[in-house]
Specification:
The structure holds two protein chains of two kinds.
Chain A lengths: L24 H13 L12 H4 L7 E4 L20 E7 L4 E2 L8 E5 L7 H6 L4 E5 L9 E5 L4 E4 L5 E3 L5 E4 L8 E2 L1 E4 L2 E4 L14
Antiparallel strand pairs in A: 1-2, 2-3, 2-4, 4-5, 5-10, 6-7, 7-8, 8-9, 11-12
Chain B lengths: L6 H12 L2 H7 L7 H5 L18 E2 L13 E7 L5 E2 L4 E3 L2 E6 L3 E6 L5 E6 L12 E2 L3 E3 L2 E5 L4 E6 L5 E6 L14 E3 L2 E5 L10 E6 L5 E6 L29 E3 L4 E5 L20 E6 L5 E6 L15 E7 L2 E9 L4 E9 L4 E9 L6 E4 L6 E3 L10 E4 L13 E3 L4 E7 L2 E6 L16 H5 L2 E3 L8 E7 L4 E8 L8 E3 L3 E4 L6 E6 L5 E6 L9 E5 L2 E8 L3 H13 L13 E6 L3
Parallel strand pairs in B: 1-34, 3-8
Antiparallel strand pairs in B: 2-40, 4-5, 5-6, 6-7, 9-10, 10-11, 11-12, 13-14, 14-15, 15-16, 17-18, 18-19, 19-20, 21-22, 22-23, 23-24, 25-26, 27-30, 28-29, 29-32, 30-31, 32-33, 34-35, 35-36, 36-37, 38-39, 39-40
Amino acid sequence: MKRKIDSYTLPELPQKDAMPCRLDRRGMLKLTALAFLGVSHVADNAFADEAADKRPQPGDRLVDINGDLGKPLRIDDIKLASKPILAFPFDPATKKARDGSRLNKLLLIKLDATAMNAETKARSAAGVLAFSAICTHQGCDVSEFLPEDKNLLCFCHFSKYDPLADGAVTAGPAPRNLPTLALKEENGELVVAGLLSSAPGAKTNT
Amino acid sequence: MLKKLPWAPLGTVLATLLAPLSASADMANYSPVTEARLISPEPQNWLMYRGNYAGWGYSALDRINVDNVAKLTPAWEFSTGMSEGHQAPPLVNNGVMFITTPNNQAIALDAKSGKEIWRYKKQIPDELQQLHPTNRGLALFNDNAYLATTDAFLVALDAKTGKEKWKTAVADWKSGYYMTLQPLVANGKIIVGCSGGEYGIRGFIAAFDSETGKEIWRTYTVAGPGDPNAGSWPTGKYATGGGSVWITGSYDPKEKLTYWGIGNAGPWMGDTRPGDNLYANSVLALDVDTGKMKGYHQYHHNDSWDWDEVSAPLLIDIEHNGKMVPSLVHAGRNGYLWWLDRDQKGKNDIGFVDAWPYVEQNVFTKIDPKTGRPTYDPTKVPGTNKTTTYCPSLWGGKDWPPEAYNPKTGLFYIPAQNNLCAELTGEPVKYKAGDLYIGVPLQGILTNVRMTEKAKDHIGEVQAWDLSKKKLVWQHNYQYMNWGPLMTTAGNLVFGGGTNDRKFHAFDATTGKLLWEFPTNSGVIGVPSTFEIDGEQYVAVQSGWGVDAERMQGAFNAVLPPEQKNTVPQGGVVWVFKLPK
């Protein structure tokens, strides 16, 4: 659903955290969805997005951005050296995806664990590695895996990252590594085992 | 005396005295940029994107000319502190230069010394993704300067101080709308258009009040309900149909008509949206007061090649069969040079005159001589789950870098890419707001380039055409790409960068002889300008490789042998050249 933008002559909307009383887009979506469902009371506070906006936390599960946002991914869902899966963290306490910010997008890929050094292996769960999916260059989605050179690719300006070397930049204009995220396995599910190694996204406000 | 003053007022007095000093030294005599000046710009200044409303990229200055250009030397340089694609022309208004940089910064400089007067930084949302981190310049009007941003705002600045006067949200960046173009000032209005076709936007051109930022009109570039050409789209597809607007329109102030080039339809594969998909890949003629469409011409229908018809046409009077035709001329991304009549039957409608290929093109089998509608070779039309090789490549015969026209030589100059083809395969795609909506595997775009045998000789070209004779008068070749916007002058010169060897070049406008070249800090993909102060002529351009030039280099590196791979250094610098005294 697109935000309704009938009038474009308003001044720039203040940021959400600076304007706690105003319904933002996410709140609108939730209320609209609830209205359509005929829900009579708002048990789920539409204004409290802290959990959804928060970066991935230890203990979080992961859900497929293009799949069921309520169903945590299992190790077996990630196939060896196939197209990466874009995921959001999933807060097990609220049972909600942390989808409040696109900076929370993660890239999951399964690679041959025998090709990993000790550090990379320690960060993986049965060969599954997780990275921020936001290119450090200009903030586009890093969504592709190139099997021939085993690199991750950002389409926007063809920056490449090595998933077996801490997300190091191997080509293109990206200024810094793709942040990594440690994973572990619990009962066949993928579980976040730490924090992102650095802040996700591009730093363009220089 | 000072002791008698309380501290607070003293602070105020000092602040009042000190704060404006740096600006007032350069700005006390700032000349308002009036409508009259824009219609008849004085030669010593460069007040808009292409120097005049007709889009010529031409200057009547001739102190720097074929006889002395070889002596051209740097007068000053200025580091912008930014990386990515620096494409804005240095605008100059009576000694004050204005540039913009990627990441939505605007800078005013003393045009003689390069001293910074002010800098404006539009805050960018952390979540914004910038597929095209660039900006093509400020629009100047009265005492204001207008900036169109990658988070889809139109911002009005005080040209004397750089202070923000107002900003208007033109569209929703979260749904993929963004702007990189220099706004057009026409009849007191500020006119812009949005890009974002790769994200499934519905393109438009819109006009805003120059004083208040209030929207006056909005005309969609994708025909929807109520538009007579809505039937050129399958039901509902118009809402995500693309039709980006990338580049400032040209303008005929007598007729109050403005002409804009429109991008391709989305997603990329034409079989996902059967029909002509108006007004994608077209030129539009709009009434500047109402936004009403007075005419259009679609260069090619149902695009599947990513041939955005990015550039606005140039307004040139050209002789055709003994009659002078008020024309629109456009070197198409589709590889054909288009010659249109902008006043067909005296009705301001757009008519077809002629079109012919200016680079290797293997898709069109014929052009209807009356309408200009091309017929396609079906084996050269990519489709969903269908792999096709076609020429020119997805970057076309010419992408966004503007052509130039010199009224003294009568020649039309094109920065062309030749001997390049592309291989593409479509894939099914679903729309999701803010996500890419292309329908081609991204890996396939990385490795799309196919070089023909002739590419071993050269790829980049600067072409000079005598349009009325349909004759290529001269051509200069570069080994690799040419992403260099062109400028031509009464000194019988053509200037342009665009090569991956960091050079900025000057050619004899009549013969094409290379007369001067200079290696800069980075690759030159900026629009050049020229100006005069105290009797001295200067030539200015920004060097700062990035965006599509860099992307093409990445695509070349993906297919070239190691010894031919290249990385062009980044970093923006304004270069200003003059003759030694």
